[in-house]
Amino acid sequence: MSVNIDESACIGCGACTSACPLDLIELRDNVATLNDADACIECGSCVDACPLGVITL
Ligand code: SF4
Ligand code: SF4
């Protein structure tokens, strides 16, 4: 299970990193990166948090 992050569209705002209850997303070189896809519970918080719709389930 995991989300898909369109890294080319990410502006590095950080909203998704604080939204994830499991802290699975971090910014690397100002781009959101999912650290542990297997741990993602597909709660959708990061999807809702992204102002640009960069993250999809
Ligand atoms: S769907 Fe939920 S658990 Fe998965 S990365 Fe997004 S906020 Fe984290
Ligand atoms: S909320 Fe969206 S634009 Fe902001 S860092 Fe996350 S993926 Fe990138």
Please outline what is shown here.
With 57 residues, the protein is α+β, with helices and mostly antiparallel strands. Helices cover 18% and strands 21% of the residues.
Q: What secondary-structure arrangement, pairings included, does this model have?
A:
Blueprint: E1 4-5, H1 15-19, E2 25-28, E3 31-34, H2 45-49, E4 55-56
Antiparallel strand pairs: 1-4, 2-3
The structure holds iron/sulfur cluster (2 copies).
One iron/sulfur cluster is lined by residues 3, 19-20, 22, 24-25, 34, 40-46.
Regions with little confidence, pLDDT below 50 for 5+ residues: none
Summarize model confidence as the mean pLDDT.
Answer: 97
Annotation field: number of helices: 2
CATH topology: Alpha-Beta Plaits
CATH architecture title: 2-Layer Sandwich
Specify the CATH class: Alpha Beta
Helix content: 10-25%
Question: How many structural domains in the coordinates?
Answer: 1
- Major β-sheet strand ordering: 1-4
Q: How does the helix and strand content classify structurally?
A: alpha+beta
Q: For the report, how would you describe the main beta sheet?
A: 2 strands, antiparallel
Give the ligands present: iron/sulfur cluster
Amount of beta strand: 15-25%
Q: What does the radius of gyration come to?
A: 10 Å
Please write the string of helix (H) and strand (E) elements.
EHEEHE
